[in-house]
Design goal:
Blueprint (H helix, E strand, L loop, with lengths): L1 H22 L2 H30 L1 H8 L16 H9 L1 H7 L5 H23 L1
Helix pairs in contact: 1-6, 2-3, 2-6, 4-5
Length: 126
Amino acid sequence: MRNHFKKQAMPIRKEMKSDLRKIMNLQLAMLIMHIYISHRQRNLLHEIWYVLGTRYHDIYRNEFCGKGGLVGKMLCGRFDELLNQMYFIDRNFYEKYHGKITNSNALGDAYAVALAYIKNNKEVNR
């Protein structure tokens, strides 16, 4: 069933990548990279919260959530921020793809396009 949804969304995802390549610039690429990094760090924090909170209560309270703990030192973004940010950058892009692609797939595709843009931009500037 999962492959069915992937195949169903594939043409829309390809179209989104091509549209994103047209509007991509360095600032948008950096924004997408920061959204992706904050999403991955949030997932890591949730995994740590689960392990420490269910098994090691004293470590969880003192070192993780306590004063000087890990909680305040990492970015914690939402994975749906990509389309929310695209609403302010390019409203037509947002209206075209909002609700048609899952947010996690949209973020992964946008991250791939951003990395390719940055790599090509570095090669041009050398």
